[in-house]
Amino acid sequence: MTLEELISTVEELEAILRKGEDFALVETRTSNLLQKFPLVIENTDLVERDKLQCRILLIHSQSLIRRGMTLDALPYTRQALDIAKQSSLKNFVAIAVGLIGTIYWQLSDYVLALENYQEALTINKELGNDSGAAANLGNIALVYWHLSDFTKALEYLQEALILNKRCGIKRGMAANLGNIGGVYAHLSNQQLALEYMLKALAIYEDIDSKDGVAIWTGNIGTVYADSGDHILALEWYQKALALHQELGNKIGIQSNLFNMGEEYLNLADYTNAMEYHQKAHMLSKESGSKREIATDFTTIGALYSMVEYEGYNPGIAQEYLLKAIDQLQELGVKKELYEAHRTLAGLFQRLEQWKDHSYHFMQYHNIEKEVQNEEVTKQMQLMEYRRKVEEAERDRQVKIARFQEQEKILHNILPAHIAERMLNGESKIADSFSNVSIFFSDIVGFTKLSQNIEADDLVTFLNALFTEFDRLARKHGLEKIKTIGDAYMAVAGAPIAQENHAERAALFALDVAELMKDYRTESDYTIGVRIGLHSGSVVAGIIGENKFVYDLWGDAVNTASRMESHGEPGKIHVSEEFVDALSLIRPSDSTSQWEKDGLRVIPRGEIDIKGKGTMRTFFLERR
Is the distance from CB of 124 to CB of 136 less than 8 angstroms? Predict the structure, then answer.
């Protein structure tokens, strides 16, 4: 088998699983894939290999769960979880943890089920995976429903419904609406139950989801059955049965055959009841679902034990009920187990086999008491767990609020790209940029101004002025680096490289110069600005631990500063390197202006620059 064939097979098995067709086949084929896996993926990328192995393990686990082999599924799910954690595949971690929640739910360990569902929900929320979070919320709701905490169940279903609506996941919306109807059915509000289930059915019909239509048609039948309208229940079950038969969905067929058998039993039609339960039992055996098989043994045994049934046969009844007890003990399903013991005790009572009656009655009594005690313990554990979850959620919300505030502060003091890198866990940020353009400006007349106005007025003036500088920097794509007193520094080409960095810096400088032309303060002071530009290479990074600063270092920074300090008020003084970066058209006469695309530079000649020596510089203008 090639890698491509393996991937194709995995996709095929996922499709079969979604349709709910043949879980025994899926289990067999995934077992074979797991055996071949090491050979097929020998030269595959490590992460892709782990993703693929997780998929196979999770498919295998789900096929076992759907066949009632819940405990057998647990080690495969845990293996998938370990692989996902090792490779930091958080989406697969969420799926595996959620599946472990389903395993514990089926094992009636509701506290562990909720812990795992909540963990999966937290991961999906962190990933921004609303569809996954909606599925988790729906599962949490079903646990609370099973625990008869209908208020909580409805809260979680409503939250899941909101997320599914936001994502436009109609199938999820339909499931949530239908399950809300199911909760109302348990609350004996059959009218609301039908209203919600019919809404769910309409959505499934609208999206042409045949399996959804089939499932909820059967569920509507259950509402009528619970209402005591057994004839109407049979009609809906018959419709659902036909739909599942058309789809070839054996689980759906088995479920509706079983339900129809129960309705015939309620109508005292024991012959039809036995016929439908036997048909359901044949399908349970085909699917290999141990729990369903055990339930069928109990139901068929109970029918054979009824004296009203024309096929009444105590021997066969005893045989079926003992098989049910053996299998239920193996599965650890106690509630159905004590029901089987009670039915068998009743049979032995009618047969006046008092020793056997006494044994099974005591088994029934002890297991029922054990289940009740376990339920009380679980309810107490659940209450404690809910208290812890609520406390953890409060702490989480506080941490989120603090993190959001920190994130906001980081974005205010650092370039957005750098802030994101820090938030993603980078502790050391240092980059080299070979081509950037650096802007320096300094206010002319600031010393006199600062001596003649109040402190508040001075700060207000600087804030208003540099806010305008910030706006212009954003307009042209420059990154503000810092202000030192009345000096302003910005860069084009870092922390994100830009091919046209010089042009961006030039247009920004021209806009700043235009802003400062004939600029007067509110106190009627006239001020100007000197601007310097230079292009070159720099090192950029974060310094500090508590008060972060993003800064630039290198000779290019010093040169840009010198361009400003050696410039003239109201003018933009630039280096020859900056002019070269602009790619202006050089005239043959070195004293003439250079120009291109609305820009021109006028040679200033060679001047002595402190710390740099003699440099050829220019003044930048608009054409």
Answer: yes
User: Per-residue pLDDT for 41 more than 60?
Assistant: no
What's the rounded Cα separation, in Å, for the pair 30 and 50?
15
12-26, 383-397, 414-428, 449-463, range with greatest mean pLDDT: 449-463
The residue among 68, 93, 109 that closes a domain is 109
Q: pLDDT band for position 14 (50/70/90)?
A: confident
Tell me if 329 is assigned to some domain: no
C-alpha to C-alpha distance for 371 and 2, rounded to whole angstroms: 51
Q: Three-class SS of residue 444?
A: strand
CA–CA separation, 494 and 478 (whole Å): 8
Residue 472 lies in a domain: yes
Q: Looking at the structure, do residues 82 and 231 belong to the same domain, yes or no? A: no
> Which tens digit of pLDDT belongs to each residue from 143-186?
888 777 788 888 899 999 999 998 888 989 999 999 999 988 88
Same domain for 233 and 93, yes or no, is: no
Cβ proximity of 115 and 385 under 8 Å: yes
DSSP state string for 391-408: HHHHHHHHHHHHHHHHHH
Instruction: Write out the DSSP string of 560-615.
Output: HHHHHHTS-TT-EEEEHHHHHHHTPBPPSSTTS-EEETTEEEEEEEEEEETTTEEE
pTM score, two decimals?
Answer: 0.53
Residue 190 has pLDDT above 60, yes or no: yes
> Would you list the DSSP string of 523-541?
T--EEEEEEEEEEEEEEEE
Who has greater pLDDT, 195 or 414?
A: 195
- Give the pLDDT of residue 197: 94
Q: Is 592 left (phi over 0), alpha (psi -120 to 50) or beta?
A: beta
Same domain, 581 and 450: yes
> Above 90 in pLDDT, residue 466?
yes
Ranking 183-197, 258-272, 380-394 by mean pLDDT, the lowest is 380-394
Phi/psi at 288 (5° precision): 75, 15
What is the distance in angstroms between the CA of the first residue and the CA of the last residue of the chain? 69
Q: Beta 599-609 vs 549-553: how paired, if at all?
A: unpaired
Instruction: State the total domains in the chain.
Output: 3
Q: What is the reported pLDDT for 375?
A: 67
Rounded Cα distance, 581 and 305, in Å: 97
Q: Which residues of 70-97 are buried (b: 16+ CB within 10 A; e: fewer)?
A: bebbbebbbbbbebbeebebeebbbbbb
For 241, the domain range is: 209-284
- Domain containing 72 — which CATH number? 1.25.40.10
Among 567, 574, 614, which Cα is nearest to 593's? 574
Show the CA angle centred on residue 348, arms to residues 344 and 354, nearest 5°: 130
Phi (first) and psi of residue 418, to 5 degrees = -70, -40
By percentage, how much of the chain surpasses pLDDT 90?
Answer: 45
Tell me, yes or no, whether 129 lies in a domain: no
Computed over every residue of the chain, the mean pLDDT equals 85
Residue 353 lies in a domain: no
440 beta partners: 489, 532
Taking the CB of residue 381, how many other CB atoms lie within 10 A of it? 15
